[in-house]
């Protein structure tokens, strides 16, 4: 029903089930990017002519829309970045750098692991990892034990696992984090597109979002910062557009959010992102969640019927992605055969090698859905999967 809103599906017959890697873009997003480059391509927050004022106005409108989208108190608490990866690196190399201990979960994407390694932290030497239970759920007992032993820490946890779709109970994680006088950053790469988020209710300190995972352009992300931290967060990069006054003796920075946005931004991407949020607001995230939940449940039931399947978690507390293996077959081989049948999934480690190592596997086949997918997509995929299994067995 919704595919008609996405130009990709008009031009391609691919059954697209790789939405955790990136999502397709509604026509409004593509049109807005073209509109910017065609009709008012100008820099923001600098010149004072018609095109520049329009670009600045639309750029700031995205900030306002995103503020409402996640129920942040003020627009200045949203800063634009290149994506979740840049937001995580920014916080790791500024605010979180001085903390003795960083606590992450077992299900983190490499983007929330390597920035900590780059600081010389390794397991039990400045970096602690919360266990995942056998069904991959977050082990709260272990988390509290880590916090008890390491109060005043920095906790950095994904909202939803990109590899398995497991949803972490961020509200409960935030309560425990703050009980032990620690701070919480949440990686929202896989949550923003799937269900309603209220950063005040969750009580997170930082919330790192990605436009391209949320039906917007690539190369754009946003970071929500709790108000009391705006003054405490050091600037990451400086330069054009971040300063109030500069002499050869000193630089006086602008206030947030501008002091955190150095250099010319991805203007087309940011203003395109607003159109993706507007589109989602029109459908409503309640509807998105409902549609995806039905699809995920259907997918799970169909997968369970496949011979020799290995599933790692059930549909409870999960969304978006579903990972599996077929006994004695290589996930990448299955991925290649599915591609030949025009079915796009991801096979491999999904930038989450540590959890793959814990599970003693090289990777999985990941089917990741969005609300525009249909039961028919899943039926085609299941048929293709069975065919690939037969071909590889021969
Ligand atoms: C859980 C998670 N974190 C971080 C990232 C990186 O996000 P971005 O592409 O916005 O840098 C991804 C992308 O796959 C992800 O799935």
UniProtKB/TrEMBL annotation:
Catalyzed reaction equations: (sulfur carrier)-H + L-cysteine = (sulfur carrier)-SH + L-alanine
Keyword Transferase annotated: yes
InterPro entries the UniProt entry points to: Aminotrans_V_dom, Aminotrans_V_PyrdxlP_BS, Cys_dSase_SufS, Cysteine_dSase, PyrdxlP-dep_Trfase, PyrdxlP-dep_Trfase_major, PyrdxlP-dep_Trfase_small
A GO BP annotation: cysteine metabolic process
Gene3D superfamilies xrefs: Aspartate Aminotransferase, domain 1, Type I PLP-dependent aspartate aminotransferase-like (Major domain)
Cofactor(s), by name: pyridoxal 5'-phosphate
All copies of domain Aminotransferase class V, residue ranges: 15-381
PROSITE patterns: AA_TRANSFER_CLASS_5 (PS00595)
Any one GO MF annotation of this record: cysteine desulfurase activity
Keywords attached to this entry: Lyase, Pyridoxal phosphate, Transferase
Protein EC: 2.8.1.7
Transferase found in the keyword field: yes
PANTHER family per the UniProt record, alphabetical: CYSTEINE DESULFURASE, CYSTEINE DESULFURASE 1, CHLOROPLASTIC
Function comment: Catalyzes the removal of elemental sulfur and selenium atoms from L-cysteine, L-cystine, L-selenocysteine, and L-selenocystine to produce L-alanine.
Family of the protein in this entry: Belongs to the class-V pyridoxal-phosphate-dependent aminotransferase family. Csd subfamily.
Name of the featured protein: Probable cysteine desulfurase
Gene, per the UniProt record: sufS
